[in-house]
Design brief:
Layout lengths: L1 E6 L9 H15 L3 E7 L7 E5 L2 E6 L12 H20 L4 E5 L6 H8 L10 E4 L4 H7 L9 H14 L2 E4 L2 H10 L6 E2 L17 E5 L8 H13 L5 E5 L4 E2 L4 E2 H8 L1 H5 L3 E5 L6 H6 L1 E6 L8 H8 L3 E5 L4 H4 L7 E3 L4 H10 L2 H19 L1 H18 L30 E7 L6 H7 L9 E7 L4 H13 L3 E6 L4 H11 L4 E4 L5 E2 L2 H12 L5 E10 L4 E2 L8 H4 L9 E3 H8 L10 H11 L4 E13 L10 H14 L1 H6 L1 H11 L13 H6 L6
Parallel strand pairs: 1-2, 1-5, 2-4, 5-6, 6-7, 7-8, 9-10, 9-14, 10-13, 14-15, 15-16, 17-18, 17-20, 18-19, 22-25
Antiparallel strand pairs: 3-4, 11-12, 20-24, 21-25, 22-23, 22-24
Length: about 675
C-alpha cells in the first residue's frame, strides 16, 4: 500500500506526542512493506528537502510566504502548502492509496476543500484523519483566547478536517466522546496510538512524586500544586519533581513558570517543589527511577504518552479522569484515577501505600500497557480500518459542512424545474462601457456551457456606455440586452434573475471577469450536492491591485460576523435564489449581495467556495465599494442584522464573543490574521 502521512512533527524535531506517533507509525508501516511518504513542515529550512530510507521517504518544506500568498496567515498558508505539495507529488507519480493527516492546526483542510469541491487532482483521494489534540477543544480549557483571530479560524479548519475526512480515528474513547459533543453526528473509530516498550524490568519505587509535561494550565499543574501546598503545610512527606518546558499563562499575561515561582516561592525554597525544566529523553529515566508515582493532573488528555511511558517504566500513575488515561488505567489495579475533588485524598492515600504494593501495581501497569499499545496489534487494527475505508468510500451527495443547516422551507429540484440552457449569466450594467467588452470576452470560452447571457442596463446615461450596448448587439448576437429605468444594483440583479430560463444562475459585474473553469466546476458541484445552493471562488484582483482574496465556505457564526467571500459573483440554483436570495433594494449603500447570502443561509441554503482564484475582480478607484466608510458600514451591518433577527439570535453567544475578541466587522478583513484591534491593543497604529 502507498501511504502518505501529513504531520507537523517528525524526528529529529519533537514538539510533543504527534512526533512520537508519526515516527513509530511510519516505521511500522514500512516494516510491513508499505511505501510511506511523510510530509512535514520545517521552518528551519530555506528550501525543500527530501530524504529516503528504504521504503520511508521524508519530505520537508518551509512554510514561507510568497507575494501570491501574503494574504494568508501562517496556519491557512501551511494548509495551502500541504495541499500544493500533495498535488505536486500526485502529478509526478500518481496518487497514494491513502492519506493520513493529523487534525491539529487543520493542515488537511485545504486539501479536503479541494477534494470536496471536485478538483480533478483531489476528488478521488481517500483521506483519514487521526485526531490528536484539536486546538478548538484545548484553548477554552487552557483559558486561551479561543475566539481571537487567527486562533478561532484554526479551530474552524480543524473542525472542517474532522467533518470532511473519509474516516476518523481517535486514540481514546475520551477524545471521541468530546468530539461527539462538539460536532453533532460525528463518529470515529477508536484505535490507540502505538508505542515501543523496551525496558524489561522496573526498579523499586522511589520517594518522590513526578510530574512530566509542559508546565501549562491545561496540564493541571495549578490544580496539583494547590492540593499539594495544603498537604505540605500538614507535613506531607513526598516532594514533587516537575520536568517539562514552560508555557504562557494567558489570564495572567506571563509565563506559567514565573507565576508558579512567585506563588510557591516558599515550597521551592524548602525543596518540596523542584522545577527542573525540560530534559533530554535519555535523562528522563533517572526521574522515573526515583519516583514513587507519576502524577498526571491534566484537565484534558487525548492519548497521554506520559501515562504510557510511566506505565512502561513500571511506575504507578495517579491521573485525572479527564482524558484517554481512563482507557489505560484500571483504578486500584494498575494505577489510580481521581476527580478534581478527590485529588487531595488520593495523594494522601498514595503516601500511605507501601512500596511493595506500589511495586506490584507498577508491574501490573507494565504488563497491561504492553498489550494495549503493542505496535503490531495497533498496526493490524489500523490496516483493517484503512481497508474498510477504501472499500466503502463513495462520492456523497451531501457536502461536509461544519454546522449543517436544516432547510426551513422546501424547494423543488432545480434540475427538473427548467429547460435548457444549463446556466444563465446575468450582468448588471450601469455606465461601465469602458469595461463591458472585456467582461464579455472572458465568457467566450464558456459559451457552450452557458449560452444564455443577459446584460441588464440600469438606465445608463453616458454616451460611451450606450454605444457599447449597440456594439454588444452587433458582435454578440447570442447575448440578450435589456434596458430599464435606473433603480440600482439590487433591483437590476433581481430583474435579470426573474427572466432567466436556466436551472442555474450566475451574476457577474460588468467590470469583472472569470476564469473559464469557474462555471463548469460550479455546475458540477451544484449537480453533485443536494445540500449546496450556491458556489463561489477565490478572487484575483487586477488593475489597481494584484492581491489575492482568499474566500471561505460561508458558515455561521463567522459568516454572520463578516462576509467570507465575494458575494457579487456567485453561481446559484436559480429556484433557491428566487425564493430566498433576491437582493433587497433598500440596501441602498451596498452589501445587498451579502444580505442576500445571509437570507439564503437563514433558510438552510448553504454555499461552498472553490479554493482557486477563478474570479477576476477589477479594483477601481471609483467603484461602489470604494465609497464605503465607517458610518455607512455600521449602518449596513445594522440593517443586515435587523433584516435577519432570528438567524443572528441563534448564534448570539458566538457573535458577541467574536466581536469582543476581534472588534467590529468594518475593522475586519481576513480571519487568518489578527485584526487591527489586536494591533491597537499592542500599542500599534491601526493599518
Amino acid at each position: 500500500m502507498k501511504i502518505w502521512l501529513l504531520t507537523t512533527e517528525f524526528p529529529p524535531h519533537f514538539g510533543g506526542g504527534i512526533a512520537t506517533y508519526s515516527d513509530i507509525t511510519s516505521r511500522i508501516w514500512t516494516k510491513h512493506g508499505h511505501e510511506v511518504t511523510v510530509f512535514v513542515v520545517d521552518d528551519t529550512l530555506e528550501q525543500i528537502h527530501l530524504t529516503t530510507e528504504n521504503l520511508l521517504r521524508i519530505f520537508r518544506f518551509p512554510n514561507h510566504s510568497t507575494p501570491q500568498l501574503e494574504t494568508l496567515g501562517y496556519g491557512a498558508r501551511l494548509s495551502y502548502h500541504y495541499a500544493q505539495w500533495v498535488r505536486y507529488f500526485i502529478e509526478q507519480e500518481g496518487p497514494p492509496d491513502i492519506i493520513e493527516s493529523q487534525e491539529f492546526s487543520g493542515i488537511a483542510s485545504h486539501l479536503l476543500q479541494r477534494k470536496h469541491t471536485l478538483d480533478p487532482i483531489f476528488r478521488d483521494l481517500t483521506v483519514v484523519i487521526t485526531a490528536h489534540s484539536p486546538k478548538f477543544v484545548l484553548d477554552p480549557i487552557d483559558r486561551a483566547p479561543s475566539y481571537t483571530f487567527p486562533n478561532y479560524w484554526l479551530g474552524e479548519m480543524e473542525r472542517y478536517s474532522l467533518r470532511a475526512a473519509c474516516g476518523t480515528i481517535c486514540p481514546s474513547n475520551y477524545l471521541k466522546d468530546v468530539l461527539r459533543r462538539e460536532l453533532n453526528d460525528f463518529d470515529a473509530t477508536v484505535i490507540p496510538n502505538p508505542y515501543m516498550i523496551s525496558n524489561p524490568n522496573s526498579p523499586d519505587p522511589g520517594d518522590h512524586l513526578l510530574y512530566v509535561g509542559r508546565i501549562q494550565y491545561l496540564k493541571g499543574i495549578l490544580l496539583l500544586l494547590e492540593a499539594l501546598s495544603k498537604l505540605w503545610h500538614r507535613h506531607y512527606p513526598l516532594s514533587l519533581d516537575v520536568v517539562g518546558g514552560d508555557s504562557f499563562y494567558h489570564p495572567r499575561g506571563m509565563s506559567m513558570r514565573s507565576f508558579i515561582e512567585g506563588r510557591y516561592h516558599t515550597q521551592i525554597q524548602e525543596g518540596k517543589l523542584i522545577l527542573h525544566g525540560p530534559v533530554k529523553p535519555q535523562e528522563l529515566k533517572g526521574f522515573y527511577d526515583r519516583a514513587k508515582a507519576v502524577v498526571l493532573p491534566s484537565l484534558f488528555e487525548n492519548f497521554p504518552y506520559v501515562a504510557v511511558e510511566s506505565m512502561a517504566h513500571g511506575r504507578v500513575v495517579l491521573a485525572s479522569d479527564k482524558g484517554g488515561q481512563s482507557d489505560l488505567i484500571h483504578h486500584g489495579i494498575n494505577g489510580w484515577l481521581f476527580t478534581q475533588e478527590s485529588l487531595p485524598q488520593q495523594l494522601e492515600a498514595l503516601a500511605q501505600t507501601s512500596h511493595a504494593q506500589i511495586k506490584a501495581m507498577g508491574e501490573q501497569a507494565r504488563r497491561d500497557i504492553r498489550d494495549e499499545v503493542d505496535p503490531e496489534l495497533v498496526y493490524g487494527k489500523k490496516m483493517t480500518y484503512f481497508e474498510h475505508i477504501l472499500e466503502s468510500s463513495t462520492n456523497s451527495h451531501h457536502f461536509p459542512f461544519i454546522r449543517p443547516q436544516m432547510p426551513q422551507l422546501s424547494v423543488h429540484n432545480p434540475k427538473n424545474s427548467f429547460t435548457s440552457p444549463r446556466l444563465t449569466i446575468v450582468i448588471p450594467y450601469h455606465n461601465l462601457g469602458t469595461y463591458l467588452m472585456d467582461t464579455l470576452d472572458s465568457l467566450e470560452a464558456v459559451r457552450e456551457l452557458c449560452p444564455e447571457i443577459i446584460v441588464v442596463d440600469d438606465g445608463s446615461t453616458d454616451g460611451l456606455s450606450i454605444a457599447t450596448l449597440s456594439r454588444v448587439r452587433r458582435l454578440y448576437p447570442h447575448i440578450h440586452v435589456y434596458r430599464k429605468a435606473n433603480e440600482g444594483l439590487a433591483a437590476t440583479r433581481n430583474y435579470g434573475a426573474k427572466i432567466a430560463s436556466s436551472p442555474y444562475l450566475a451574476f457577474l459585474d460588468a467590470d469583472d471577469m472569470v476564469d473559464s473553469r469557474y462555471y463548469a466546476r460550479s455546475l458540477e458541484i451544484l449537480d453533485q450536492y443536494d445540500n449546496v445552493s450556491f458556489v463561489g471562488a477565490w478572487s484575483q484582483y487586477f488593475e489597481d491591485s494584484q492581491a489575492l482574496w482568499p474566500a471561505w465556505n460561508p458558515e455561521p457564526p463567522y459568516a454572520l460576523y463578516h462576509n467570507p467571500l465575494n458575494t457579487s459573483a456567485l453561481v446559484f440554483k436559480t429556484e433557491h435564489f428566487l425564493q430566498y436570495g433576491l437582493n433587497d433594494p433598500q440596501m441602498e449603500y451596498g452589501m445587498e449581495d451579502y444580505e442576500s447570502m445571509i437570507r439564503l443561509l437563514a433558510h438552510g441554503c448553504s454555499g461552498v467556495v472553490i479554493p482557486e482564484p477563478y474570479f477576476l475582480y477589477r479594483v477601481r478607484k471609483d467603484s461602489m465599494s470604494r465609497g464605503f466608510n465607517m458610518v455607512n458600514l455600521m449602518l449596513l451591518y445594522q440593517w443586515v442584522i435587523e433584516k435577519n433577527p432570528e438567524f443572528y439570535a441563534r448564534y448570539h453567544k458566538d457573535l458577541l464573543l467574536l466581536l469582543n475578541a476581534n472588534g467590529p466587522q468594518y475593522l475586519m478583513d481576513n480571519p487568518t490574521w489578527p485584526t487591527r484591534v489586536h494591533d491597537m491593543a499592542r500599542g500599534q497604529e491601526p493599518i
